[in-house]
Specification:
Radius of gyration of chain A: 18 Å
InterPro entries (chain B): UreF, UreF_sf
Helix content of chain A: 10-25%
Number of helices of chain A: 2
Largest sheet of chain B: none
Shape of chain A: globular
Number of strands of chain A: 17
Family (chain B): Belongs to the UreF family.
Radius of gyration of chain B: 17 Å
Largest interface: A-B, 39 and 45 residues
Oligomer: heterodimer
Helix content of chain B: 55-70%
Structural class of chain B: mainly alpha
Keywords (chain B): Chaperone, Cytoplasm, Nickel insertion
Strand content of chain A: over 45%
Number of helices of chain B: 12
Distance between the termini of chain A: 31 Å
Protein name (chain B): Urease accessory protein UreF
Order of helices and strands of chain B: HHHHHHHHHHHH
Subunit structure (chain B): UreD, UreF and UreG form a complex that acts as a GTP-hydrolysis-dependent molecular chaperone, activating the urease apoprotein by helping to assemble the nickel containing metallocenter of UreC. The UreE protein probably delivers the nickel.
């Protein structure tokens, strides 16, 4: 089977007082759509993997860059499915590069990534946020198709996050699940984990709001912290419950509905 | 001059070394409160996963990388490991736990077991160093072998969390030692795994319940511990 090597690069800039699309580069199976935003909403970029899923050996790169003073929302059209890797194939890789300039605002809100039983994925997300820039990012991973009774008994998910300020690394974390999750401090009965990351010059008010909202999260284990100046929230539970709780949290936290693709 | 690596290692990793280890539970206090640790068996299961799939994995790999770069006197690479170790903290309290103890360790060790490399690291990093990297640095420059130093480090980490659990669960001192004995293989395996790591890019954790407990600890009503 042919390995896919796709890439998309999108930049938004502020011109004449409005955020406009700057550069766009796309190579299959990565595509970007720009649905007309609802009134009063910032522009949206919707990432698509036209192959309908990712499999062993695929290498995808996505980058989103927001220029000084611009504001945009980026998401994915659907849940990203990572298919079972054929025997002996190398892990598929997804590299995400997010850059937010001074005074710029980005909400990076991809839909969940579903890692099928036997799939192998290494995803690395690097966010660089200049002082004065704001980033809200949320990523949710699901281990196996729990609704079809599938367990994640073999396979690999390596999901690495780094947040950089110019010239320095401020926060990093990597989830690495290989086969069954461990007893003890592992996932318990959960098969899904959402992570929300927020970068602002003054995180405290955002943190207090997030904490109040997560106190009332239903059916998931949720919490939030500010570590090294970065807001980090986690929602752990069964996939449907985590998706519902995450949608509810993001909607209330942002004070606006999630991009329309989330609701289809 | 006598130079006994074992003597130094035992001193630095003793609960009597005044870095304040006793004041941190690394989420154990909340795990007890939430019923995730209820008895000796669930305590061992919890710490086994923390060693093999959680902090033990990450801090072990950072320790090994710090030890090796210090041994090679590659201070640029060492400082990159130190930066990564400071950034690689899941929660505010786990960051505090590592930063405060690491800073104290460096400061006390500079005084009691001085070495120019410790002073230089202190100057370059403004006295801030995550605990595993601080201990790795001292071990390396004082001629303590990596495997012994790391096994000692992970043992001390484990013993400290057992000691925290004994205060939070109704468990006796003997139970604590039975738990420590049961975790010998986990400490050994985590040490070997960390030493075999070729790239920190491939290291990660599978312990979201640990992170969740640490997040919850920030708002836990009654707290004996700082983490």
């Amino acid at each position: 089977m042919q390995r896919a090597s796709g890439e998309s690069r999108v930049t938004f800039d502020l011109r004449d007082g409005k955020t406009r699309l700057g550069d766009l580069y796309q190579r299959d199976p990565c595509r970007v759509l720009f649905p007309k935003p609802e009134l009063g909403e910032p522009p949206q970029a919707v990432m698509i993997t036209t192959s309908g899923g990712v499999t062993g050996g695929d290498a995808l790169r996505m980058s989103v860059e927001i220029g000084p003073g611009a504001e945009a929302v980026a998401t994915t059209q659907a849940a990203e499915k990572i298919y079972r890797a054929s025997r002996g194939s190398v892990a598929c890789t997804i590299d995400v590069d997010v850059r937010v300039a001074e005074g710029a605002v980005l909400d990076w809100l991809p839909q969940e990534t579903i890692v099928f039983e036997g799939a192998r994925l290494k995803r690395r997300t690097v966010a660089e946020v200049v002082e004065g820039g704001s980033l809200l990012a949320c990523e949710m991973v699901v281990l196996g198709r729990g609704a079809s009774g599938e367990r994640f008994a073999s396979g690999l998910l390596l999901d690495a996050w780094s947040v950089r300020r110019p010239g320095r690394l401020v926060w990093t974390d990597t989830l690495r699940v290989e086969g069954e999750t461990p007893d003890g401090a592992g996932f318990g009965t959960a098969n899904a984990l959402a992570t929300v990351i927020g970068v602002w010059d003054v995180p405290l008010p955002h943190f207090e709001k997030a904490r109040a909202l997560l106190e009332t999260a239903d059916a998931v284990r949720a919490g939030v912290t500010v570590v090294n100046g970065i807001l980090v929230a986690r929602l752990l539970g069964e996939a449907t419950a985590v998706r519902h709780a995450t949608i509810r949290f993001l909607t209330e936290f942002r004070g606006r509905r999630l991009p329309r693709v989330w609701h289809v | 001059m006598v130079n006994d690596p074992l003597y130094r290692l035992l001193a630095w990793l003793s609960p009597a070394y005044p870095v304040g280890a006793f004041s941190y539970s690394h989420g154990v206090e909340t795990a007890v409160e939430e019923g995730l640790i209820r008895d000796r068996v669930s305590l061992v299961a919890w710490l086994d996963s923390v060693l093999r799939h959680g902090t033990g994995t990450v801090d072990g790999a950072l320790f090994a990388a710090g030890w090796r770069t210090a041994s090679a006197s590659d201070w640029l690479a060492f400082d990159a490991v130190a930066e990564r170790a400071a950034a690689w903290r899941g929660t505010a309290e786990m960051a505090l736990e590592s930063r405060q103890q690491g800073g104290s360790f460096l400061s006390i060790t500079r005084t009691a077991w001085p070495h120019a490399a410790l002073d230089e690291a202190h100057r370059r990093l403004g006295g801030e160093l995550a605990l595993p990297v601080a201990v790795a640095l001292a071990a390396s420059v004082h001629g303590i072998a990596l495997e012994q130093a790391l096994a000692g480090y992970l043992h001390a980490f484990t013993a400290n969390l057992i000691s925290a659990a004994l205060r939070a669960v109704p468990l006796g001192q003997t139970d604590g030692q039975i738990a420590l004995a049961a975790l010998e293989a986990a400490v050994h395996d985590a040490t070997r795994t960390a030493i075999a790591v070729e790239s920190l890019d491939e290291v990660g954790t599978a312990t979201p319940l640990l992170d969740w407990c640490s997040l919850r600890h920030e708002t836990q009503y009654t707290r004996l511990f700082r983490s």
